[in-house]
Design goal:
Elements: H1 3-6, H2 21-24, H3 46-61, H4 65-74, H5 82-98, H6 101-113, H7 117-132, H8 164-187, H9 190-197
């Protein structure tokens, strides 16, 4: 008689199915805090971002577009409120829109060739993807709805042209796509892979 036949149905148990083997594994994530895998990021307040954005706009008004772009990329907002991230995103888009198409590639090459340049272009790529996903006022902002009062003519009065918002969105998207193409040309496809796998989000 085989050993299987010696056991009755009552002696067989499924208790082994309820054992949490992860708790017995010293390398399991249950036995240590997974948050320690990510170094803490400094929290940036809205006041800090307003001050930084004012400095960046001052560089832009002074004609130092590359300095303004570096200022945006060297201080990304990883840990902050949504409004803080949005405010910095608006400044990034403003800087990108102010740079001529003929200046894009030479500027990116200078940044990429400097110390930490690869990291800066990865940060730029993060902001480009955020802008293209509708995460900025320049590249997908929805105008708030207003209470419109019907006039005697039957038409509602509205201050701007109906298509003005769509035109602004399309123009911003065109700028972001142009920058995306230039960043890939300079930094390569590896920049996209690094951005997609980075846990730090802008």
């Amino acid at each position: 008689m085989s050993i299987i036949q010696q056991h009755t149905q009552a002696s067989l148990s499924d208790a082994w199915r309820t054992i949490n083997i992860d708790a017995l594994d010293p390398d399991s994530s249950q036995n240590f805090d997974t948050s320690t895998l990510h170094p803490p990021l400094p929290e940036i307040s809205e006041a800090d971002v307003r001050q930084l954005n004012a400095q960046i706009r001052q560089l832009l008004r002074g004609g130092d577009a590359e300095g303004a772009l570096r200022g945006c990329l060297e201080s990304p907002v990883y840990n902050g409120s949504d409004s803080t991230k949005e405010a910095h995103m608006q400044t990034v888009v403003e800087v990108l829109q102010s740079i001529k198409a003929s200046e894009m590639t030479p500027m990116l090459q200078r940044i990429y060739g400097s110390v930490g340049g690869s990291e800066l272009l990865d940060v730029l790529m993060k902001y480009l993807y955020k802008g293209m996903s509708g995460g900025s006022s320049g590249g997908g902002h929805k105008t708030p709805t207003r209470n419109l009062t019907p006039q005697a003519t039957g038409f509602s009065q509205i201050g701007s042209r109906p298509l003005a918002s769509n035109e602004n969105t399309g123009a911003a998207m065109s700028v972001l796509l142009s920058w995306h193409e230039k960043v890939v040309d300079v930094a390569g496809l590896g920049s996209i892979e690094r951005v997609m796998t980075d846990w730090r989000k802008v």
